[in-house]
Amino acid sequence: PAEGGTAKLTLDPALQREALGLMEAHHLPEAAVVLMDVATGKLLAYASHVDHGALHDLCVEATAPSASVFKIVTGAALVEDAHLSPDTKQCYSGGEQRINTVDLVEDPQRDRWCTTLAGAMGRSLNTVFARLAKERLTPTQLEAMAQRFGYADPIPFDVPVQAGALRVPSEPLEFARTAAGFWNTTLSPLQAAEISAIVAREGEPVRPSIVEQVVAPTGAIVWTAPDARASRHVIAKDTAAQLQTMMEHTVSEGTCFKAFHDPKGSAFLPGIHVAGKTGTLTEAETQRYYTWFTGFAPTHPDPGVRQVAVAVLVVNGPSWQVKANVVARDVLRAYFAEQGLQGVTRPGIHEIARRHKK
Question: Do the beta carbons of residue 163 and residue 142 sit within 8 Å?
Fold first, then answer.
């Protein structure tokens, strides 16, 4: 503070050290971790890591593409505007790495696989989201939903936050690609954590905070964090509940099953249900390989355990060691082990570092 004194932070020192230690042990080129108390918006971990070069605050930079994290926004629009549900069935083919016009055309002979909207969220099936968005949503509806989740507008915080970019094309193919998470939107890790917190809070936003209070040299409290309670809902309570159901599929059977379970299928977080969403996208020109995980746990609040939202961004090169979902899993392990939950062990940071030295 300009007048001297001390800013007291909301961070949990042990979790902050653990988050920094995990990113350093994996020798990640760039990474960021945000862990937020869902009920209060207080940040328990706020960690940014750059392996080479000057350190900068990745937590508030919205330079990374949203990738498939944007499917949360599209999923919300499909529920609230198109009146679909997690059980809505859709057949599909293609679209794993890219989406072409032919992938958007219903063809019973080509569409040999079928799933539900929840299954598509869990396995991040691009064609399902692209087709449903093209057929059931307008660009105006998707853009409005993204703005409600904070895109194109910096979220309130104790330091400036770069606004996530948002461009929703009207051309059908580009619109479908955007809805599935292919470019045209960017996201900061802080906003990614806020998106998960909105779902966890039944559609209600919360103001993130990292400064609890400022104490003057005299001992007087000269500043206190503003009230985190919101006066509005981003999405309806029922929409949030349906998104939670979809996001649970990510960990229970989808893109995060292997990260959150050992080779025998045993959960690293036994008895704790996790809702989440991954995102993966490579920038062809720079070969920067972006991976995301954002989510919350436990999915249903436990009176004895604070519910937390987590967001992790990992930026690798063409060769990589670990994705964001593994780092997120280990941050959650550290948190729930600190809470004393039975069967949860802390990640072995020294063992991780030793493996990477081989």
Answer: no
Q: How far apart are CA 122 and CA 116, in angstroms?
A: 10
Residue 116 tokens read as: 């539900």
* Phi, psi for residue 125 in degrees, rounded to 5: -80, 110
- For residue 129, the cross-strand partners are none
Q: Which residues contact 185 (CB under 8 A, 6 or more apart)?
A: 65, 66, 70, 146, 151, 164, 165, 166, 167, 178
Amino acid at 351: E
pTM value is 0.96
Digit-coded pLDDT (tens) for 55-77? 899 999 999 999 999 999 999 99
Residues 6+ apart with CB under 8 A from 240: 198, 199, 200, 201, 202, 203
> Which CA distances in Å does 17 have to 11, 44, 352?
10, 11, 15
As a whole number of angstroms, the distance between CA 204 and CA 213 comes to 24
Neighbours of 296 (CB within 10 A): 28
At 95-117, the pLDDT tens digits run 778 899 999 999 999 999 999 99
- Residue 116 CA: distances (Å) to CA of 177, 180, 334: 19, 15, 33
Entry field: residues in the chain: 358
Structure tokens at 204: 């209600």
